[in-house]
Amino acid sequence: MIPAIVVFIYLATVLYIGIFAFRKAKGREKAEDYFLASRSLGPFVFLFSLFGTNMTAFAILGSSGHAFSNGIVTFGLMASSSGLVIPLTIFLIGTRVWALGKKYGFMTPVQMFRDRWECGHIGTVIFVVQAVLLIPYIIIGIMGGGTTLNAISGGVVPYWFGGAIVAMVVMSYVFFGGMRGTAWVNTFQTILFLLFGAIALIVIGVGMGGFTNAVQAIQSSPALAPLLTRERISPLYFFSYTFIPLSAIAFPHILIFCLTARKMNQFKKTVIFYPLCILAIWLPCVFLGVMANRVTDVPQIRAKQEARRVLATQGKTMAPEARDDLREKAAGDDVILLLLERYAPFWLAGLLGAGIMAAVMASDSQILALSTMFTEDVFAFYGGKRRFGEAVQVQTGRIFIVIITLFAYAVALRAPETIFELAIQYAFSGFAALSPLLVAALFWKGSTKWGALAVTVWTAAAVAAVAIFQQVVPAPAPAPGQNPNIVVCAVGGIEALSRTPAGTAVFGFMPVVPMVIVSALLMIVVSKITRTPRATTLARYFKLEAT
Amino acid sequence: MKRILLVIVVVALYVLHQDFWFWRTAHPLVLGFIPIGLFYQACFSVAASLVMWLLVKYDWPSQLE
């Protein structure tokens, strides 16, 4: 119960930070102040809040769980590739969007697209696709909060109550504090979960009597030895994964965060330190996830190891439902919680639990971004701001925050978590496929609104097609040493479309690769055959680009 | 010329990320317990930070401001 009390103290602190931001903003009820903190964030808050916004529950729970099942490859797949691609996109795209936002007053990506391509309803189509891809994140954040509080309290806090507490706390500080409150809370949370990685590594390492014996034991086991290498992941799949971080800059909450910097110089520290921040949080979590395979005195971890063994040896002969059930039992998203429970003293488990909660509660900026998008791209665009004024616009944003949080909580109580985990998988590919919109808007004079529409419609169709394909064709069981894929379509003996244990492969690549390439081609081809915006509109953008 | 060099550095870093050397082996274990592939990717993250520093130092779009 002590860890749960520490976590509740943490939640109260977070709530206080949000309320404090509200009091600081009193008398400044402007939309730009509420939604963008008056574009006034300093370098420290900007770096930590932008990084924290991008690190969800997956950074701690998901990374260690993925490493538990797949090994050290998790770090190369997801962390080091993000450490190169994300700061690069912030450097190339984030700085330019910030400059344009500062000059022309944009508060959302769709506002910029509407101005850049002289379009109206096409912007609304982009808003709808962005919103649909973003909502699963908010739901999974509340689910993660309920699950984590339940686990940390040893089952004393039920899932529904834990989810309600997390939803209420997030809703309150976003409702009152707006972007300023969210950024301050994110900064506090980021410091917490950056410390979490190092402390957890030391505490669990001491508890396990060092890692040398564990690594040697893993290496001497034929079933576990591949976890210390990358050999189970094909080079094409590994290459495909470097397309996923393109989604970061296309996420509305990340791009909107880029607009909050006080000066462009604030991007410098963010770009330089981003890879190191990722290293600090992901490396310990991935390593501990792999080490959990050598823990034999925690019954829940042993049950996962057994489920994985059965899946590998008998999975081929099982019904798809039985395979899915085993897959869920073998999933390792809670291994780091179980390791802490086993090796950390009570008081420290509470502090580390607060660190995990900090990562789980990253849905705050997504809720605020959705509210900003709704009030700017729909309410204001269709005349609401002109008719009712700016104060009503801010109140509308606040009401939207309450509605979206209550909706997310209601869904989180009724729907199984796996649905939203899948939806998030598709969302990453979807936002990566939307990234050509930003590149075309900022770097290509010849791009047009019809090219933008083609990219958006293609992204929505491709995400839906992959989702339907994975529902219709059940995932095969993993078969170490063999090719387990179900080949749906082959061209000249090459697997063109196949269902893999982890998802879908197109010519051996993840779907994100063809999705991004087709997006870029559509933008080029459709723009070439349609009319570009007026010269004066282009001058507003490309004079700014003449670096 | 400066920008071309920076592009070459970034592309080289991207190629290095694919790790054509250590992906099939865990040996040697760094400090006796860190698989070489994991150590390689950790070093890559530090290299990415250094390359970002180069970009900020030599190609910062100050014109925008």
Characteristic terms for this protein:
heterodimer; A: 547 residues; Sodium/glucose cotransporter; three-stranded antiparallel beta sheet; 73% helix; globular; B: mainly alpha; elongated
Overall description:
- The complex is a heterodimer of chains A (547) and B (65).
- Chain A has helices spanning 2-24, 31-36, 43-54, 61-70, 73-104, 109-117, 121-152, 159-207, 212-220, 235-240, 246-250, 252-258, 266-291, 299-314, 320-330, 335-343, 346-360, 363-380, 384-388, 390-414, 417-443, 449-472, 512-528, 535-542, and strands at residues 486-491, 494-500, 503-506.
- Chain A is mainly alpha-helical and 547 residues long.
- Chain A has a single domain (2-413, 420-542), classed as Sodium/glucose cotransporter.
- Chain A has a 3-stranded antiparallel sheet, covered by helices on one side.
- In chain A, helix 8 crosses helix 20 (390-414).
- Chain B is elongated, with a radius of gyration of 16 Å.
- In chain B, 26% of the residues are buried.
- In chain B, 60% of the residues lie in helices and 0% in strands.
- Chain B contains 2 helices and no strands.
- Chain B has 65 residues and is an all-alpha fold.
- In chain B, helix 1 packs antiparallel against helix 2 (36-58).
- Chain B has one domain.
